[in-house]
Amino acid sequence: MLLPVGTDGAIGGQWTRNLGFLCGLRAGGKWVMLESKDWRLISDPTVSLCPWCGDPHPLCSHKLEGSEITRKATGFAVLDWKSGSKYKRFDIYRKVPKDLTQPTYTGAIISVCCCLFILFLFLSELTGFITTEVVNELYVDDPDKDSGGKIDVTLNVSLPNLHCELVGLDIQDEMGRHEVGHIDNSMKIPLNNGAGCRFEGQFSINKVPGNFHVSTHSATAQPQNPDMTHVIHKLSFGDTLQVQNVHGAFNALGGADRLTSNPLASHDYILKIVPTVYEDMSGKQRYSYQYTVANKEYVAYSHTGRIIPAIWFRYDLSPITVKYTERRQPLYRFITTICAIIGGTFTVAGILDSCIFTASEAWKKIQLGKIH
Question: Which of 276, 306, 323, 338 is surrounded by the most beta carbons within 10 Å?
């Protein structure tokens, strides 16, 4: 707001409005600050030089954008709106006039690259924020206490050179269970025009060390030379987990091919079963089991002669439980990361631009002979 210098006198000791200007009292060539609730005098119109550019007032026409301060030629005093200025002193982001800044081509290139880099990092963080991640942890416990001490087993194996009437499943463990020829929830499918058999079964085992094996022990008449070459399509424990982000050993023996083995050999698969829990975003838990496997192949003999071969699955349970949990990145962490990306990128870009500008200015001075 501008105040005419030539206006003298005060009306009731207050500043008065006159067509958008304010009139005030001047004493001895100086403006006297009169009592006012709305306006205050912030500069002396008799100052010969502009405090911003240093030019004489008759030649100065300087405007500071972003504020209510306007300076013009001698003859006007500069006033500031008092009620606004008392809050402006809290501004830690002071503004610099545009005509006091110098744009450069290097700065423009760095600015564009900086914005593209920020956009790339922002999209990367946004993708990570909306994507569900799966974290895992280990602890010692029996997670599925409601199972009654049982584990469901799914077995699918093909024996291309053994008739279906000879194939059977036997189960035994350290709790005294010994079941020969298990037939519940099982199915035998003839292969190769009845010369072979595919056995599919679902059964339960106790949570104690034991074994189950495919053999001819339940057959009415034992064959002389049973061929135990086989292909295991599936062997899994507990619920089937089909989760994209979890790559565990839930079907470690799936695809095991022993068709080229000795037909009279027995096969031992030694399994270490690891309880596994999967918890989704809703808190629902599913219980499954992973397992590691080691195997050996041998022809067994006793004092009465060669022992009838079989396919043995000997298992034991691990006390360690693996838990997978679906999680999303918290919103506050996403915001913090974005702020760090923007602030850090602009800071580094500003330092880089400043170094390049300083070096270029020094080089110009060297070329002009100002620096030796």
Answer: 276
Q: What is the domain count for the chain?
A: 3
CA distance 359 to 365: 10
Angle of helix 105-130 relative to helix 331-367, nearest 10 degrees, comes to 160
Q: 349 and 262, same structural domain?
A: no
Same domain, 209 and 277: yes
* Range with the poorest average pLDDT among 38-42, 58-62, 213-217: 38-42
Give the C-alpha separation, 209 to 159, whole Å: 26
The segment with the largest mean pLDDT, out of 34-38, 257-261, 305-309, is 257-261
Instruction: Look up residue 121 and give its two tokens.
Output: 């990092």
Report yes or no: 289 and 249 within 8 Å, Cβ to Cβ.
no
CB atoms within 10 A of CB 180: 12
Query: Both 205 and 181 in a single domain?
Result: yes
pTM beyond 0.70: no
Range of the domain at 168: 138-327
- Higher pLDDT: 67 or 191? It is 191
Residue 291 and residue 186 share a domain: yes
**Considering only CA atoms, which of 225, 70, 224, 227 is closest in space to residue 158?**
227
Q: Based on the fold, state whether residues 310 and 195 are members of the same structural domain.
A: yes
CB 167 within 8 A of CB 157: no
At residue 81, what is the residue type? W
Regarding whether 216 and 85 lie in a shared domain, the answer is no
- Are 337 and 125 a contacting pair, CB within 8 Å? yes
Q: Residue 101 — pLDDT band, cuts 50, 70, 90?
A: confident
Q: Looking at the structure, do residues 252 and 239 belong to the same domain, yes or no? A: yes
Q: Which two tokens stand for residue 128?
A: 């990570």
Does 215 lie in the same domain as 250? yes
Cα separation, 167 vs 181, whole angstroms: 9
Structure tokens given for 208: 């104690």
